[in-house]
Amino acid sequence: MNCIVCKQQTAPGLSAWHRVCPSCRYESAALLPTINDAEVHVHVDETQREAGLKAIRQENFETIVGYAAALAPPGARRLLDVGAAHGWFLEAARGQFEVLGMEPDTAVAEKTAARGLPVRNGFFPDALEADERFDVIVFNDVIEHIPDIHSALAACRERLSPGGILILNLPNSRGFFYRLSKLFARAGWRAPFERLWQKGLPSPHVHYFEAGNLSKLVGQQGLELRLKAELPAVRAKSMLERLRCAGQGSWLSIYAQYAAVMLTIPVLRAFPSDIVVCVYRKP
User: Fold this and answer.
1) Measured in Å, how far apart are the chain's first and last C-alpha atoms?
2) Rounded to 10 degrees, what is the CA torsion of 148, 151, 156, 162?
3) In degrees rounded to 5, what are phi and psi of residue 247?
4) DSSP SS3 for 276
5) Can you point out the beta strands (E) in 73-133?
6) 224 φ, ψ (degrees, to nearest 5)
7) Contact in structure between 228 and 276 (CB atoms under 8 Å)
8) Could you give the angle at the alpha carbon of 7 between the alpha carbons of 5 and 9, nearest 5°?
9) Measured in whole angstroms, how far is the alpha carbon of residue 170 from the centre of its chain?
């Protein structure tokens, strides 16, 4: 299998489904999405998931809206949030932009739309009208789930207005917790590594990037990097709910992961964050 970034041959990783590029350090997973599979959703506690993620996502989304307002072209109005989920980013951005969300999970899309938010059920870009264009396109924890990422990025280039910006907010392969999970996996404890790949969930990760190899990939579409930043990945409050929501592993494993996270929080600022945000501009 060749690397999607630099075309070099990838090497086996830490599991049969995991591969790593020795050249650019891009990582991939042969995990299949099952977004609208009701049987898989039974194992995901959406109430716990919302409780575990909402606070930190809302804080980070306010920061990302600030990036969008600062870097979008003058007079920019239209913003597309791909993978809008519960609509938290739409709520953060609608004061400054005319927003539209797109969400492939039918149940989640219906719940978000019922709250009065502009969400369209479907996949990007298939659910867009032929003439729809945007000044800002945002993927919050979404691009790493898309198997055909080349087509998705090409669609972003096509759907952006001249001077428009693409914002990618995603897990960072240089992040402290991800690198720690790899150490644990090598030692035989695979649960944290599989959890960070979201193995067994309706939409697992199929890519893991850092800013360098991500920018090489996006640059192949002619988009220029304008900003690179890291955002906080964890908060002590609600971390246990975040680990519980997947319904995976024993209680012992969940609490062991929780204890490990809590012990490391005081020293996290000395290490790369597990969340990176990159903003790209269409010439």
Assistant:
1) 32
2) 160
3) 65, 30
4) strand
5) 78-82, 98-103, 119-121
6) -105, 135
7) yes
8) 115
9) 4
Could you tell me whether strands 119-121 and 207-208 are parallel, antiparallel, or unpaired per DSSP bridges? unpaired
188: three-class secondary structure by DSSP: coil
Among 100, 136, 135, which residue's Cα sits nearest to residue 120? 100
What is the identity of the amino acid at 203? Answer: S
d(CA 131, CA 144): 26
Structure tokens at 261: 């996270």
Cα–Cα distance list, 204 to 13, 31, 135, 194, 281 (Å): 17, 6, 29, 10, 28
User: 152's torsion region: left (phi>0), alpha (psi -120 to 50) or beta?
Assistant: alpha
Report the top-level CATH class of 11-281: alpha beta
Q: Strand, coil or helix: what is 118? A: coil
DSSP string, 15-43: STTEEE-TTT--EEE-----TT-HHHHTT
Determine how many CB atoms are found less than 10 A away from the CB of residue 40.
15
**pLDDT tens per residue across span 223-269:** 999 999 999 887 655 554 555 555 555 667 666 766 766 666 677 77
How many CB atoms are located within 10 Å of the residue 222 CB?
A: 11
Read off the pLDDT of residues 84-129 as tens digits, 9 standing for 90 and up.
Answer: 999 999 999 999 999 999 999 999 999 999 999 999 999 999 999 9
User: Residue 183 is encoded by which pair of tokens?
Assistant: 């150490």
Q: What's the full length of the chain, in residues?
A: 283
CB hemisphere CA count around 79 (13 angstroms): 29
